[in-house]
């Protein structure tokens, strides 16, 4: 991760997305599918695309590679986002996601 410019979160079934937290803690902005993790657990430091939109995923990835200022802003947001999380907050957010998911399935 040390040499990367962005983190590609290609998972389409993730619950909490620990890999996203690890990437953001390393100062990487994230491009990922909209599975509910980006925007609910993580509030900033990423670009999301509709689930399954491979072309949109490629466009967002290219945008971050082509626009260093945008990428730098998202890096700052990602680092700030990680500083704001602690295990108590994270646990409460994960519990909300589980309840929401279980209520849809059952």
Molecular structure report:
With 106 residues, the chain is mainly alpha-helical. The chain has one domain: Glycogen Phosphorylase B (Rossmann fold). 54% of the residues lie in helices and 10% in strands. It contains four helices and three strands, in the order E-H-E-E-H-H-H. The chain has a three-stranded parallel beta sheet with strand order 1-2-3, sandwiched between helices. It is globular. The termini are far apart.
Give short descriptive properties of this protein.
three-stranded parallel beta sheet, 106 residues, 4 helices, globular, single chain, Rossmann fold, mainly alpha, 3 strands
Low-confidence stretches: none
- Beta-strand percentage? 5-15%
In order across it, which strands form the biggest sheet?
A: 1-2-3
Overall form:
globular
Query: What's the domain count?
Result: 1
CATH architecture: 3-Layer(aba) Sandwich
Category from helices, strands and their pairing: mainly alpha
The overall average pLDDT, rounded, is 87
Which H/E pattern describes the elements?
A: EHEEHHH
Task: Note the topology.
Blueprint: E1 7-9, H1 18-25, E2 30-33, E3 46-49, H2 54-66, H3 68-84, H4 87-105
